[in-house]
Amino acid sequence: MTGQQRVEVVRRWRGGWRGDEQQQIGLFCGDQFATVANPLTSCSLANSVALRLRIPADGTEDDVTNPPRITPLHLFDLSFGSDNVFRSDKTKLSARLTFVNITNKEALYNLNSTFGDTHFVTPRSVRAQFGITF
């Protein structure tokens, strides 16, 4: 099958994707992105791309050696704090500040476990923690 032949995009991998699934993985054909209301139904092989999922070329997918995968990603978190803010001997105050996903990257994360699933990563967030030990 050549890149010029028409193929059914929604049947390319494991029975196909609904419109919302196509939108979530960032599937597009040329300059047309899939939406919930307007899913892609056909596209030439050379023009179909998914932003958040690496789909092997037709005929090369194999569950053992070349499975479809979530695209690689790099996330940056930052955390700092102190376990004894006032440097006292009896009562100690601890404080921590954590920044998650500093670059606010939108991506999929595959937990790949028995009870896991594929999720979007947490958007940029800040968390503060305080504790008292006496």
Short description:
With 134 residues, this protein is mostly beta strands.
Intertermini distance: 72 Å
* Main beta-sheet annotation: 3 strands, antiparallel
Question: Unreliable runs, pLDDT <50, ≥5 residues?
Answer: 1-15
Classify the helix fraction into a percent range. under 10%
Strand elements, count: 12
SSE pattern, N- to C-terminal: EHEEEEEEEEEEE
Radius of gyration over all CA atoms, rounded: 22 Å
Strand sequence of the main sheet, in spatial order?
A: 3-2-5
User: Percent of residues in beta strands?
Assistant: 25-35%
Which term fits the overall shape? elongated
**Average pLDDT metric:** 81
Q: DSSP helix count?
A: 1
Q: Structural class of the secondary structure composition?
A: mainly beta
SSE diagram, text form:
Elements: E1 6-7, H1 19-24, E2 27-29, E3 32-33, E4 43-44, E5 48-50, E6 53-54, E7 69-70, E8 78-82, E9 92-100, E10 108-110, E11 118-120, E12 125-133
Antiparallel strand pairs: 1-4, 2-3, 2-5, 6-7, 8-9, 9-12, 10-11
3D structure, described in words:
This protein has one helix spanning 19-24; strands at 6-7, 27-29, 32-33, 43-44, 48-50, 53-54, 69-70, 78-82, 92-100, 108-110, 118-120, 125-133. With 134 residues, it is mainly beta. It is built from one helix and twelve strands. The radius of gyration is 22 Å and the shape is elongated. The strands form five sheets. It has a three-stranded antiparallel β-sheet. Strands 8-9-12 form a three-stranded antiparallel β-sheet, with no helix packed on it. Mean pLDDT is 81; it is low at 1-15.
